[in-house]
Amino acid sequence: VKDTIDCRFLSFDGTERVSGSLARPDRYRQLFDVLSRPRPAIPRGAGLSYCCASAGEDVVSVSSRRFDRVLGLDRDAGTVVVEPGVTVGALHDLAVRNGWYPPILPGHPEITVGGCVAFDVHGKSGRTFRSCVLALTLFHPSFGEIECSPEVDAELFELTVGGCGLTGFVTSVTLQLVPVAGSSLVRRRSPVADLSTTLEDLLKYDRDHDFAYSWNDLSARGNSFGRGIVYLESFADETLRASRRTPGRGAGEPAGRLPVPLLGRRIAPIANRIYYEAERRRGRSRLDLGRGSFPILGKEGYFRALGRRGFREYQMLVPIPRFPTVIERLQAAIVDTASRPCLGSLKILDAEARLLRFSGRGVAVAVDVPAGPRSRELFARLDAIALEVGARVNLSKDSRVGQRVVAELFPEYGAFRSGVESIDSGRGFDSALRRRVLG
Ligand SMILES: Cc1cc2nc3c(=O)[nH]c(=O)nc-3n(C[C@H](O)[C@H](O)[C@H](O)COP(=O)(O)OP(=O)(O)OC[C@H]3O[C@@H](n4cnc5c(N)ncnc54)[C@H](O)[C@@H]3O)c2cc1C
Q1: Does ligand 1 come within 6 angstroms of the Cβ of 169?
Q2: Is there a contact between 360 and 162 (Cβ–Cβ < 8 Å)?
Q3: Sequential pLDDT tens for the chain (439 residues)
Q4: In what order do the strands lie in the sheet containing 228-236?
Q5: For the chain, what is the radius of gyration of the CA atoms?
Q6: CB neighbourhood size of 63 (10 A)
Q7: Helix (H, G, I), strand (E, B) or coil at 73
Q8: Is 11 near ligand 1, meaning CB less than 6 Å away?
Q9: Distance between CA 104 and CA 115 in Å, rounded?
């Protein structure tokens, strides 16, 4: 019986297409069987990476979606053991119901825990997922299923966190939750004139709030470049009626996007100005946790408005002393390439820089533009800026950055590559991302 189906995969940013196949096992026996066949495989979560990290040409994408059980919860210690297909939305709800909170949550509730491990994702809190992972179990056909943690088989553990699914299929994850500090969130909005004031505010207020991040208008010209809103969020005790999370609305799958981009270069500056004015006037709001924990939930229309041709995001983690140089170079690159970014955003990260993870101490700068030749030109300039200032790029958000740039940007590139090659010497795990970045 054929248990895989032929599939065309499109990256979430809508720019990368590959033909492979999809397996959706629901028993461990089937899972191990499909992973042990000669054809290369790659684990797949919700497919919400912006690049084809969980798909590749002639690769079998092995879905974790049917492995979505909670295997254990210690209500006193706040530890939970989950299968990799549990979404962060489900994890959040389970934790909150029991008085706990997942300390690192990426922007959308549909993302899976397996995907969070494999890209060591960050959230609004400044830390990365690695900091809450106590242990993992991993299956690779060459060694079977084994448990690893910072204490046991530490090298395998470190390579798997941020390992882009290339060390094997994670079958369970043990996480440390933190006590939930309130039943709702208060979101304050503080207007800022430019990118350097944004960073100053983020550094100043970061310690007094549970979460801090910004939205910035990078399409504005002249002195208005980078004006924006700093969002400062704190837990509060007021219980609000939970807003309903609509199942299956989707984070904006490429197939559901408009045929022509609404947020093209003419409209983006107008839309950004309207957004800035509207947010500036809103001041404070209260949100129930189910909604407030995920900043992109409810804003999926943004991805649809970027159209079927897709978009590109560049996210770089800049050492703080080099940020003034980045502002100058970024503005010049945007003007020279006549680009009109539809989104800019900053947040502070403070996590140990390791391997190919998007981690370290610095300011994470994100820039979105509609896909097209101009975006290629702009992003080549951004690569040059990242190289100049020693920034790390977020591989989960980029379907374009090449091997040469990655090898130069990440001091542990060689260690990651040889680590993956020693675990997966037969190249049983493969993806478009692996081919582009590791060769
Ligand atoms: C709307 C939106 C908001 C986002 N917000 C953030 C954010 O705030 N912070 C951030 O850091 N990222 C963010 N991301 C990126 C996203 O968190 C990562 O790309 C994440 O890895 C996606 O997980 P996924 O479940 O969709 O997995 P996929 O995209 O399917 O896979 C991602 C990687 O995980 C691997 N993988 C999946 N399951 C397993 C498993 N069981 N075992 C081993 N490897 C596995 C895959 O092989 C692949 O390499 C966002 C993405 C979107 C679309």
Answers
A1: yes
A2: no
A3: 689 999 999 999 999 999 999 999 999 999 999 999 999 999 999 999 999 999 999 999 999 999 999 999 999 999 999 999 999 999 999 999 999 999 999 999 999 999 999 999 999 989 999 999 999 999 999 999 999 999 999 999 999 999 999 999 999 999 999 999 999 999 999 999 999 999 999 999 878 899 999 999 999 999 999 999 999 999 999 877 766 565 445 666 666 788 878 888 889 999 999 999 999 999 899 999 999 999 999 888 899 888 888 999 999 999 999 999 999 999 999 999 999 999 999 999 999 999 999 999 999 999 999 998 899 999 999 999 999 999 999 999 999 999 999 999 999 999 999 999 999 999 999 999 999 999 9
A4: 284-288, 184-192, 228-236, 211-216, 343-350, 361-370, 311-318, 392-393
A5: 21
A6: 21
A7: strand
A8: no
A9: 13
DSSP string, 181-208: --SEEEEEEEEESSHHHHHHHHHHHGGG
User: Cβ distance 221 to 335 under 8 Å?
Assistant: yes
Check pocket membership of 53 for ligand 1, CB cut-off 6 A. yes
Residue 283 CA to chain centroid, in angstroms?
28
Q: Is 106 in the pocket of ligand 1 (CB under 6 A)?
A: yes
Checking phi first, is residue 335 left (phi over 0); if not, alpha (psi -120 to 50) or beta? Answer: alpha
End-to-end Cα separation, the chain, in angstroms: 34
Query: Which ligand 1 atom is nearest residue 67's CA?
Result: 41
Is residue 188 within 8 Å of residue 201, measured between CB atoms?
no
Nearest CA to ligand 1 atom 4: 107
Centre of ligand 1 to C-alpha 343, Å, is 20
Query: Residue 303: what residue type?
Result: F
With the most atoms of ligand 1 within 8 angstroms of its CB, the residue from 49, 167, 436 to mutate is 49
The tokens of 228 are what?
């924006």
Residue type, 211: F
- Reading the block at residue 138, the tokens are 């991993």
**Residue carrying the six token digits 């900043």:** 295
Cβ of 84 below 6 Å from ligand 1 = yes
Which two structure tokens, joined as six digits, stand for 195?
């990118």
User: Please, which contacts does 192-197 make with residues 24 or more away whose CB atoms are closer than 8 Å?
Assistant: 192/216, 192/227, 192/228, 192/229, 192/230, 193/227, 194/223, 194/225, 194/226, 194/227, 194/327, 195/225, 195/226, 195/228, 195/323, 195/327, 195/330, 195/346, 196/323, 196/324, 196/327
The strands making up 17-23's β-sheet, listed across from edge to edge, are 4-10, 17-23, 60-63, 41-44
Tokens read off for 156: 């395998």
CB 67 within 8 A of CB 137: no
